[in-house]
Design a protein that fits this description.
Layout: E1 2-5, E2 18-21, E3 32-42, H1 44-51, H2 55-58, E4 72-80, E5 92-95, H3 105-108, E6 132-136, E7 140-142, H4 149-152, H5 158-172, E8 178-182, H6 188-198, E9 202-206, H7 210-218, E10 223-225, H8 231-239, E11 243-248, E12 263-271, H9 282-288, E13 291-294, H10 300-311, E14 319-323, H11 327-335, E15 342-346
Parallel strand pairs: 8-9, 8-11, 9-10, 11-12, 12-13, 14-15
Antiparallel strand pairs: 1-2, 3-4, 3-6, 3-15, 4-5, 5-7
Helix pairs in contact: 5-6
The chain binds zinc ion (2 copies).
Length: 347
């Protein structure tokens, strides 16, 4: 099969993936499923993998390279292990990015992302920037008949990550409250749609790119700001004293130390983007009673819920498609923000 493989890490990302012919994956255990990739979303995590940020975490033995990234996958079941009963070859599926075991206590509590034995194809083992990839039965969700894998692949990670953060926010928001979405990229544009469907709060979207600002407006953001140097004053002004919730989809490049300053007293910051380091004087935590926490991908059920919103036309992926052969162009366009929403690789 054709696959795009990473041969070396580079902090400056001046490396191209190589498009090669490699043997397709085969079933090794009874719960495994080979999926014919319909599409695979391109994620900022892929850029961080190329930079080497994940090297020590996922490449413990230094033997992972050459390596196939791609963890936002949807496609069709190609082959199934002997114990698989819920899907059959030909079924259209979206793949939760984490292959959880379903047996450990965390899995039984529904915390798929905390699974004691979890595997993450595309992050530590080969993923979906290829014609086929290997996952397990418990990660799969069958698509509604009117939904094509190409329309939803990035929902598998970008989508549920945004959905989980939006759902957390919605639990503490109410009509008249304000939520700030920092970064209207692959995740932020999904979060805006989720927030508009999950709660009555007013959504303030922030992005420097005019294209992303226009997309935010199209998707129903109530207020759109350009993230200039006076962002804190602007947010204080439009929200009447600060946001009730801020969701930071950037988490680096200095945004990580502006985001918490956008909160009102008692407000909550949900960090989703990563790479930077938050420095908050303890006095601010105390005097303003702000809460700061993170949000990690999402559980299986959250992906099911998101797919229901998608099936009803309420949350849609805005994407630009690239062939597998053009994956290096896609990566370059992503780095330079030449598309809005998500970039998607189609093998
Ligand atoms: Zn991702
Ligand atoms: Zn488990």
């Amino acid at each position: 099969m054709k696959a795009a493989r990473l041969y070396e890490y580079d902090p400056h990302m001046n490396v191209d993936l190589k498009i090669e012919d490699v043997p397709p994956p085969t079933i090794n255990s009874p719960d495994e499923v080979v999926v014919k990739v319909g599409a695979a979303g391109l994620c900022r995590t892929d850029l961080h993998i190329i930079e080497g940020v994940w090297k020590d975490i996922m490449d413990v033995e230094g033997s992972l390279l050459p390596y196939i990234m791609g963890h936002e996958n949807a496609g069709w079941v190609e082959d199934v292990g002997s114990n698989v009963t819920s899907v059959k070859p030909g079924d259209a599926v979206i793949c939760h990015p984490h292959r959880s075991c379903g047996i450990c206590l965390n899995c039984r509590y529904g915390h798929d992302m905390y699974c004691d034995h979890g595997l993450f194809p595309g992050l530590g083992l080969d993923g979906g920037f290829a014609e086929y990839f290997l996952t397990n039965e418990s990660s799969l969700i069958k698509l509604n008949t009117n939904i094509a894998p190409l329309d939803v692949a990035p929902m598998a990670d970008a989508g549920i990550t945004a959905y989980r953060a939006a759902k957390k926010a919605a639990q503490i928001l109410y009509p008249g409250a304000y939520v700030v979405v920092l970064g209207v990229g692959g995740l932020g544009h999904i979060a805006i749609q989720c927030l508009k469907n999950l709660c009555g709060a007013r959504v303030v979207a922030v992005d420097r790119e005019p294209g992303a600002q226009a997309l935010a407006k199209d998707l129903g953001a109530d207020i759109v700001l350009d993230g200039g140097s006076d962002l804190i004053e602007e947010v204080m002004d439009v929200t009447g004293g600060g946001a009730h919730v801020v969701i930071d989809f950037v988490g680096e490049l200095g945004v990580e130390n502006i985001c918490w300053k956008l909160l009102r007293q008692g407000g909550e910051l949900i960090v989703v983007g990563y790479g930077g380091k938050i420095e908050v004087p303890t006095v601010d935590l105390v005097v303003n009673e702000i809460k700061i926490g993170g949000s990690l991908v999402g559980d299986h059920i959250e992906l099911v819920e998101l797919m229901e919103l998608n099936a009803d036309g309420l949350v849609k992926m805005h994407q630009t498609e690239y062939s597998l052969a053009n994956i290096n162009t896609a990566i370059d366009d992503f780095k330079n923000r030449r598309f809005t929403g998500r970039g998607v690789i189609v093998p």
